[in-house]
Amino acid sequence: MASIIDPLAGRQILPFYLVGETGAAPVVRGRIASVGGAATSILDRHDYPFAVASLQAEALAIAACLSTFMKFDGVLTLQAKGDGFVKTLLADMTSDGAMRGYTAFDGESTVPVADDMADSMPASVPLLLGSGYAAFTVDQGTENGRYQGIVELAGDTLSDAAQAWFANSEQVESAIAAAAGCRDGIWTATALMLQRVAGDGGNAARSADTDADKAAQDDLWHTARTLMESVRRDELVDPALDPSTLVFRLFNTLEPHVAPALPVADKCRCSPEKVTAVLDQMPAEELVDLVADSGMIEVTCEFCKTTRAISPPATRH
Ligand SMILES: [Zn+2]
Fold first, then answer.
1. Rounded distance between C-alpha atoms, residue 32 and residue 27, angstroms
2. What is the distance between the alpha carbons of residues 59 and 158, in angstroms, rounded to a whole number?
């Protein structure tokens, strides 16, 4: 069926499952997050060099993918800190699809990755971030509902870091691929992730699995990974290629099933109340330096670039 794809509206997170010939139970859980619409409006507000924007777009897609694997409502944050050109990279998404991100980089030195290189391969972690770590945080907004996993930036890509974190925290096999591209000012940013569904290890419902079932499941997982590795970068960044089309193209032999797509929106969580609360915590002598000629303190949100004029705490009492 032919359809017209709106590159800004029609691209979201598509959950899918691979069942294979073994029958009813899914053996592989998958996600394809296609967040170009939200990434475009987020990146429009920042003046990043192309290679930095590409890294940010990839991080947004990966955060979107990971967030839909959360078992609880909350926020998933991907934060990377490096000693290279990029100092801080941040992308987060709530379970209802509000996404935001920002990157802090060294504005004094030359961008270490040329535009055409950034446009032809995944963002290079060693070249852009250098040495450092990536922290993945799941925060449910409650006292005990926050956990964080930290991995060293050992691989070439953000996908490598996300995969390392997932292997550590979830103890399940997974695979991630991500890519971002830009044509005429419109970004595509896609992350594709596979996760093996735990088939044993105390799961009573599966304890009757025979060795033959286990072998078939192993086989399906390895086939799925191999098929995923065959995905081309130009497929991931093609604005005309619908995510479900890509899922069926890649995994057609493994009986893919797709679930309803989950929405993604460019939506910050800042508010005048939150900014005021931060100012209220600051020492009075530091606040004095921040007061503008107007008598107000101007605060710009790093994420959405909204500037608010807040009256200093002392004048409010
Ligand atoms: Zn904001």
1. 17
2. 7
pLDDT score for 207: 46
The pLDDT, as a whole number, for residue 202 is 39
Are 261 and 31 contacting, i.e. CB atoms less than 8 angstroms apart?
Answer: no
CA distance 85 to 105: 6
Alpha carbon of 61 to ligand 1 centroid (Å): 19
CATH code for the domain defined by 13-266: 3.55.30.10
* Predicted model pTM: 0.91
User: Which residues, other chains included, contact 179 with Cβ-Cβ below 8 Å and sequence gap of 6+?
Assistant: 58, 122, 189, 190, 233, 236, 237
- Specify whether the CB–CB gap between 204 and 189 falls below 8 A: no
Q: By the 8 A CB rule, do 254 and 223 touch?
A: yes
Q: pLDDT tens digits, residue range 37-70?
A: 999 999 999 999 999 999 999 999 999 999 998 8
* Site of tokens 């970068």: 233
d(CA 96, CA 4): 26
CATH of 272-316, one of 3.40.50.10540, 3.30.450.40, 3.90.1280.10, 3.40.47.10: 3.90.1280.10
Domain map of the chain by residue range? 13-266, 272-316
Cα of 310 from ligand 1 centre, angstroms: 15
**Environment of ion ligand 1 (residues, CB < 5 A):** 268, 270, 301, 303-304
Q: Answer whether 122's CB lies under 8 Å from 102's CB.
A: no
Å from CA of 209 to ligand 1 middle: 50
Per DSSP (E only), the strands in 59-185 are: 75-82, 86-94, 98-105, 132-139, 146-152, 174-183
CA distance 231 to 143: 41
Which residues of the chain carry a pLDDT beneath 50? Answer: 1-8, 10, 201-205, 207-208
Residue 262 DSSP one-character state: B
